[in-house]
Amino acid sequence: MHFALPTRNHRSSPFLAASSVPRAYFSRRRPIYALIALVVILILFFGRSSGPSRPSDAPDTVLVLLVDRKHHSGEHIERVIENRRTYAEAHGYGLFVKSTSDYPIGPVPSGWSRIPALRHAMSTFPYTSTFFFLDSNSIIMNPELSIESHIMAPERLTKLMRRDVPIVPPDSVIKTYRHVPAERIQFVLTQDKEGLDPSAMIVKRGQWASYLLDAWFDPIFRLYGFQKAERHALEHIVQWHPTILTKLALVPQNIMNSFPSTGNSDEGAYEDGDFILNLGDCEAYGRNCEKEWKKWIAKRAVLDE
């Protein structure tokens, strides 16, 4: 049996051979296609780059402060906030203040709340690039020092970075990298004789910072029961995750986390002119944080004269 097949140029066929369409049909429309393609490219380019513009009053740096309203008087908390506000206003920084009770972190020490506080600050200040968390037991003693010139400027940070030192003193196998350039650093903090100290830390906004905070706040670590809670958890992830270590810089303790002098020549002991004084866990050792604050604030007033 034979079936009749339509010819190549049969009008009933849904497919027309290229040869059946006049070449002039395409040549006349080629400029139109090029113009359409150009318009589409321009729309995609400018549409992608014309997102929300950065507000002129958006701060480049934000100070993050957590206060404990359950264990400190309102008067003391106001002194702490004023210490941060005065400094922030002097340098054009933003200020983000929250209470530890604002973050339901579960049955763990309140120190863990610094992590969601940082995430909260980043969402509140979406155009800010640098976040400086400073514990409420720390005092800004030298408000003339800016975070940029004193720490974060690449040429300055290059000189400050402690390279090839154990993460956990004195003999941790894992050490800071020797050759990481300052431009790559996203996380800056200090260490004392016992290890990393997150009571003062600088974090740069970005995907890496989100990864750091998510990993650090993971329930596996938060509920593990580390002896020093979030501090030991941070040491763990820094030592076991090169992704974190490669963007971390340790700076000398007296650069942004000095402690009260005990009369010995300990490295990191506070000296006049230092940026930050950290009173540490004064409540845990029977000291009175509020009285110590008053004493050091009075000393700073004398230095300012």
UniProtKB/TrEMBL annotation:
Coiled-coil parts of chain: none
Gene Ontology annotations of biological process type: protein N-linked glycosylation
Pfam families for the chain: Glyco_transf_34
Gene Ontology MF, one: alpha-1,6-mannosyltransferase activity
Keyword set includes Plastid: no
Presence of the UniProt keyword Acetylation in the record: no
Cellular component terms (Gene Ontology): mannan polymerase complex
Residues spanning the membrane: 32-51
Highest taxon of the lineage: Eukaryota
Keywords for this protein: Glycosyltransferase, Membrane, Transferase, Transmembrane, Transmembrane helix
Similarity comment: Belongs to the glycosyltransferase 34 family.
Protein name as catalogued: Alpha-1,6-mannosyltransferase subunit
